[in-house]
């Protein structure tokens, strides 16, 4: 892929992978440029979303981003807080994240997943006005949907190793299996 192709992906959106009544609707911060170029969520090779999803037991094998539609077979889906693609998430304004949070609430009310899993604690805090939120289950609910804040799976998030990230995904998987 050329730098021009990546630049052309700026501000594009990527369709959600969503259906009614999912076990977990995963929510990224916003699409990166490679994701927007390919149309596949978490497409950057260094992103740890797909490995963590498999290592935690959500999927029987590691799916490739191009297989994202198979998530629906496992009762899983993907969306984003902010829809527009950027090179880095810090290019989003706080207002964009808050607006994305409002749109996300409407989406959750529409599709009614059992869990909404927001991958990125800072984005969750901003989008929902929860300045002291921590990784893990949240007190906030949207209708009957519980919320879990996950670590950002970007390879740039050095605070979380692939192992500890998979452990946190597994905690969510266990909670989602309980009901």
TrEMBL record:
Residues 15-178 form the Uracil-DNA glycosylase-like domain. It is an enzyme of class 3 (hydrolase). The lineage of its organism: Bacteria, Bacillati, Actinomycetota, Actinomycetes, Kitasatosporales. It comes from the Bacteria. The keyword DNA damage applies. SMART domains: UDG, UreE_C. One of its GO terms (molecular function) is hydrolase activity, acting on glycosyl bonds. PANTHER family: G/T AND G/U MISMATCH-SPECIFIC DNA GLYCOSYLASE (PTHR12159), G_T MISMATCH-SPECIFIC THYMINE DNA GLYCOSYLASE (PTHR12159:SF9). Its EC number is 3.2.2.28. The keyword DNA repair applies. The gene is mug. This is G/U mismatch-specific DNA glycosylase. It comes from Streptantibioticus rubrisoli. Keywords: DNA damage, DNA repair, Glycosidase, Hydrolase.
């Amino acid at each position: 892929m050329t730098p021009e192709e990546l630049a052309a992906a700026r501000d594009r959106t990527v369709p959600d992978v969503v259906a009614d009544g999912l076990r977990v609707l995963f929510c990224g911060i916003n699409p990166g440029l490679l994701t927007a170029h390919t149309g596949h969520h978490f497409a950057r090779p260094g992103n740890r979303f797909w490995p963590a999803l498999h290592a935690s037991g959500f999927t029987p094998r590691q799916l490739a981003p191009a297989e994202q539609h198979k998530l629906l077979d496992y009762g899983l889906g993907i969306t984003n807080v902010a829809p527009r693609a950027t090179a880095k998430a810090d290019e989003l304004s706080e207002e964009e994240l808050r607006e994305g949070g409002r749109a996300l609430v409407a989406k959750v009310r529409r599709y009614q997943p059992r869990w909404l899993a927001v991958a990125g604690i800072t984005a969750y805090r901003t989008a929902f006005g929860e300045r002291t939120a921590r990784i893990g289950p949240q007190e906030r609910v949207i209708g009957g949907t519980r919320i879990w804040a996950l670590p950002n799976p970007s390879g740039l998030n050095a605070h979380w190793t692939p192992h500890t990230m998979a452990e946190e995904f597994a905690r969510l998987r266990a909670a989602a299996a309980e009901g």
